[in-house]
Amino acid sequence: MSLSSHVEELKKKHRILSNQVEEAQRAPGSSDIEIAELKKQKLRLKEEITRLSVNA
Q: How far is Cα of residue 36 from the mean position of the Cα atoms in its chain?
C-alpha cells in the first residue's frame, strides 16, 4: 500500500468516526465515556494523518 493510499484510508476512517461522534452526541442513550473514546480514536487518526503528511 502506498503512503498516499494509506493516508486516504486513515482520512476515511476519520470521517466515519466523525459521523459516529455526531450520532452519539444526538442519541439520548449514549454515554459520555463512549463519546470520549470515539473522540480519542478520532484524534489519534488525525495525529497519524498529520505525521504521515509532514513526512511525505
A: 12
Cell of 26: 444526538
Residue 49 has pLDDT above 70, yes or no: yes
Measured at the alpha carbon of residue 13, what is the angle toward residues 55 and 24, in degrees to the nearest 5? Answer: 135
Taken as a whole, the chain contains a residue count of 56
> Please, what sign has the CA dihedral across residues 17, 37, 34, 22?
negative
Give the whole-angstrom CA distance, residue 16 versus residue 2: 21
The pLDDT assigned to 56 comes to 66
Rounded-to-integer distance, Cα 6 and Cα 14, Å: 12
How many whole angstroms separate alpha carbon 23 and alpha carbon 9?
21
pLDDT of 27 strictly over 80: yes
